[in-house]
Amino acid sequence: MLTRRKVMGSVALGAGALGLGIAPPRASADAGQLTFAGFGGTTQDAEKTAWADPFSAATGIQVIQDGPIDLGKIKAQVESGNVLWDVCDVQGPVAYLLARKGMLEPIDYSVVKREHLDPRFTFDYGVAAFGSSYVLGYNKDVIKDKEPHNWADLFDTRTFPGKRAVFKWMSGAPFEIALMADGVPADKLYPYDVERALAKWATIKKDIVWWSTGAQSQQLLASGETPIGMLWNGRIYALIQGGANVGLSWEQSTPGSDIMIVPKGSKHKAEAMKFLAVATSPKPQADFANATAFVPLNSESVPLLDKKLMPYMPFGKNTAAFPIDFQYLADNWESLAKRWYAWQTTA
Amino acid sequence: MPNLLPPQALWLNRGILGGFGLLLPGLIFLGIFLVVPLSVLFLRSVTDPIVGLENYIALLGDSSYARVLSNTFTVAALVTAISLVIGFPVAWLLAILPSRQARWLFAVILLSMWTNLLARTYGWMVLLQNTGVINRTLMGLGLVDAPLHLINNLTGVTIGMTYIMLPFVILPLYATISAIDPLIMQAAAICGAPPASVFGRVLLPLAWRGIGSASLMVFAMALGYFITPALLGGSANMMVAEMIAEYVQTLLQWGLGSAAAFILLAVTLGLYALYFRVFGLTQRI
To answer: What is the end-to-end Cα distance of chain B in Å, rounded?
Structure first.
């Protein structure tokens, strides 16, 4: 006969069994693997094919892909001591920010060879992943007659009407773009004339559509929702490869990079350093660049690049980039970022 | 109440536990998973980066936070009002329709509520964009020359959030209205009241408590909404949840983020106090 006591007993037994069954895996069980976190989409697919797969084939260490990158998560992992992401691909300025906050492991340069790596993006706590530039992208189906060339065209709503796709976060060099569009010469950008830059942005404020992920920017440009905007060069290349009718201009492009970091307290530090050594060596860097049109930061990779990609890469006639003052940015990052985000909330 | 407990369990409602013994499991659950995390959060807001009320002072003096906070309450109030205006007739219809037809209407409402929030929000993006369905139709029919700005502004946020909140207004109101005896309204009509009076002086007062609780629920939910305002709104009408996300995920200033959350909580509790003053805590009917 089914009494209440019997039912309660069996429920308790079942719950106990369930509890035992879903106990978290012991750390020792997953030695010989590491977790790589990136931004997802076409870029992370290329990171997997160019870096993770050769690494796993060579060392037998399994690489688990995860993401998307969330700084809050990284901070929570480091603070709680339960670090799940062993290698993270973060934006350049963010790596410096995390290092300042003491959240990163120092890179073991006895394992990772740094001689040929771009010194601008390689430092004690992070190693260069790939170079990416913010370029002017436009939808050729919507903008048919004239071709936009530089940032001044981004602010010219009379010649090029429509909404503009603008990167929301501070790492998009918003002040440089606005100041250059307003006519400030490249060598006089620093220190920023913040008011002048914000005033320039205010002229197109109501036409701005903010994007925060690469996929979002691709969607906005390809659909024609924002016929013109600032995007990562590699994402525009992916669109063109996919058949979208979009174009880009390299004039005044802002050079940036992604940097790979290892959060403090990672449980697979040794494996992570080996991975970084592989990811920054010439052929994997070149393979990634050939797949995405992002720039390899190992100078020995350049001869290995596919010649067909040259129009989509910042080489040759495409180096109209300007020198960014990384020290100024590192020193003033937080106050500038707050100012930029506060301005975004104004009407 | 104690009459319904089996003899072995009567101790739950006696002695120091008073009448709250049966509440214990719920209280313990809330205590561990609500009170403790909130206290930790509050501690962080007064200790990160330095001990003191720095974060609160910084936020209360920050004009952009004030703007975001007022945006949040404006949007929440707007969404609540519009949801009530649209939802009340639907709930009323549900209550008086014969059960066969009422079931179909129910199915439509419930299906929309059960559809994934993100899918619904993206659906609205596809509809409202400049290159979206609505604008293309209007321009194709020649009714407008330039696309209407229906997204990345207050309009988009209001439309999206109202759509999502509607089931939460309709269902409680349906419960309230269906509990009202239709003979009362018949009696009012027999006594000579015109339809407008029957509605305004009989139905509305009887449904008042339902309206109050539905609007309270929707308002509180709307205050904390993140995804829909982030996707359908613009930065100019940012809501608090998005700003807190910025503090937590981008600026990594968790003390400020916690303080921002607590200021929102304090203002909301203040509004609750006001609500209880107006609508009363105890049963009147």
So the answer is: 21
pLDDT tens, position by position, A40-83: 888 899 999 999 999 999 999 999 999 889 888 999 999 999 99
The side-by-side arrangement of strands in the sheet containing A246-261 is A62-66, A33-37, A87-91, A246-261, A127-139, A228-232, A164-167, A208-211
* Closest of A247, A237, A254 to residue A91, by C-alpha: A254
Chain B residue with Cα closest to A166: B235
Give the pTM: 0.78
Which pairs count as long-range contacts for B185-194, CB under 8 Å and 24+ apart, including other chains?
Answer: none
A335 lies within 8 A of chain B by CB: no
Tell me how far apart the 2 most distant CA atoms of chain A are, in Å.
89
Amino acid at B251: L
Task: Pull the structure tokens for residue A252.
Answer: 């005044």
Please state whether the peptide bond connecting residue A282 to the residue before it is cis, i.e. omega within 30 degrees of 0: no
The Cα–Cα gap between A128 and A259 comes to: 5
Tokens of B266: 């304090």
Portion 117-156 of A in contact with B at CB < 8 A: none
* B154-178 vs B99-114: helix crossing angle, rounded to 10: 140
- Predicted ipTM > 0.85: no
